[in-house]
Amino acid sequence: MKKYKIIIFLLSALIMLTGCTGNTRQEPAPTSVPLSNPQTGLTDPDTTVVPPLHPISLPKGFGITVFAEGLQGPRMMAFGPDQQLYVTEPATGRVLLLPDRDRDGLSDGIEVVAENLIEPSGIAFYQDGSLYIAETTRILRLGDSDGDGYFQDQEIITAGIAAGGHTNRSIIFSPDWQNLYLSIGSSCNVCLEQDERRGGVMRYNIDGSEGRIFSTGLRHVIGLAFNPNNDILWAAVMERDGLQEGLPPETIYAIYIDANGGWPYCHAGRIIDPEFGNNDSCGEGLLNPVFELEARSAPYGLEFYTGDQFPENYDRDILIALHGTGEGAQASGYKIVRIPLGGGEKGSVLDFAVGWLGDDGIPWGAPTDLIQGPGGDLFLSDDKLGVIYRIFYVQ
């Protein structure tokens, strides 16, 4: 009898270490479909094109140009009421304007519009033209009362956000302009948080009042975007490290009030955490991912394409910047992927822009944030190389 008890104990331990139970699935995280007819070096007869440091492959008809360079870790981006591009620099504490007033497809220069901030990352313009900036521990509302282009007016909307750990803070306004959403990443890879706001998304009134947890159990969210089809908020989640190869996948969720993604007990709705989970951790009531991405690919920017420049079959598709991790055989990400929401390729994760990982397995860039421009171009920040790219389509 003692021998059988030892065998049962060992089998139970194995199940907990691998996360395998009758209610969980352990398929490897999916990889994206490679480009079928990759193209590099396309030019645009209507604008100036500055080639990237190394070739970037895109689908036929698409091109890429350096829009601005010489930046220091550019992170999140927003277009202002003036239809010009603004970007945060967490390392320098600045917010920059990168204008293209002559519409030649290149930035005219770098203009500082706010400075002496504390690791600013999230950025969003409110409908009245005020600029909201998310620092690590607070959200600010900036104004330009004298109209000189510099945001000298500063108001603290909310403070006391936990510091340390994952410090990026993304913000987005609801489509009806009634609420502001803030992502707060975890303090760790996997742990029990002391601050229940960490590892989730908060919702506030526009003035910062009535802050409450909107969705929880989302380890580290940077990409936030409202689905234009139904105004539901979607979040790109970087899941934990340190499980078996290929697990857990990175995830895309459609989130809602009081939704729970399961972290740190369950990952991707199906993988029990070996340290904190139990047989019931991936049970009913948790969010299930809308899409899964390759493990440790680090999804950052998330954008629904609604412009009219790209081909018609791109309408309302999802584009995701995979910031990437690792080198050589352990490298994952370092590209942009597209997920069609209609047509024959619906739901497939397709490579859209690749090339930031060199042939030697060393990344020379890191796709960071994505945003659609007023003319339908796609803008991409790279906080490793310090550049902003513009991706365009030539009819």
Mind sketching the topology for me?
Elements (H helix, E strand, L loop, with lengths): L1 H17 L43 E7 L8 E3 L5 E5 L4 E5 L12 E4 L7 E4 L5 E4 L4 E5 L9 E6 L12 E3 L5 E6 L15 E6 L6 E5 L4 E6 L6 E5 L12 E6 L3 E2 L5 E2 L3 E2 L18 E3 L5 E6 L13 E5 L12 E5 L10 E5 L12 E6 L5 E5 L4 E7 L2
Parallel strand pairs: 13-17
Antiparallel strand pairs: 1-27, 2-3, 3-4, 4-5, 6-7, 7-8, 8-9, 10-11, 11-12, 12-13, 14-15, 15-16, 16-20, 18-19, 21-22, 22-23, 23-24, 25-26, 26-27
In short:
The chain is mostly beta strands and 395 residues long. It contains 1 helix and 27 strands. The termini are far apart.
CATH superfamily annotation: TolB, C-terminal domain
Runs with pLDDT <50, length 5+? 1-24
Termini separation comes to 76 Å
The largest pleated sheet is described as: 5 strands, mixed
Mean pLDDT: 91
Tell me the fraction of residues in β-strands, as a range: 25-35%
The portion of residues assigned to helices is: under 10%
The coarse overall form would be: globular
Q: What is the CATH top level name?
A: Mainly Beta
Query: What integer value in Å does the Rg equal?
Result: 21 Å
Number of helices: 1
Structural class assignment: mainly beta
CATH architecture: 6 Propeller
Number of strands: 27
Order of helices and strands: HEEEEEEEEEEEEEEEEEEEEEEEEEEE
**Strand line-up in the sheet with most strands:** 10-11-12-13-17
Find the CATH topology. Neuraminidase
Number of domains: 1
